[in-house]
Amino acid sequence: MIANRPGRIRRLASMRGLVRETTLVPQELVMPLFVKEGLRRDWAIPSMPGQFQHSLDGLLKEARRCRKAGVGAVMLFGIPARKHISGSGAFSETGIIPRALRRLKKEFPDLLLVADVCLCAYTRSGHCGLHVKNRLDKDATLAALARTALLYARSGADVVAPSDMMDGRVARIRDLLNAKGFSDTAILSYAVKYASAYYGPFRQAAENTPQSGDRRGYQMDPPNTDEALREAAADIEEGADLLLVKPALSYLDIVFRIKQDLVFPTGVYNVSGEYAMVKAAAAQGWINEKNTVLENLVSMKRAGADFIVSYWARCASDWLREGAY
Ligand code: PBG
Ligand code: ZN
Question: Which residues have CB under 8 Å from 30's CB, separation 6+?
Answer without folding.
Answer: 71, 72, 73, 74, 75, 114, 267, 307, 308, 309, 310, 313
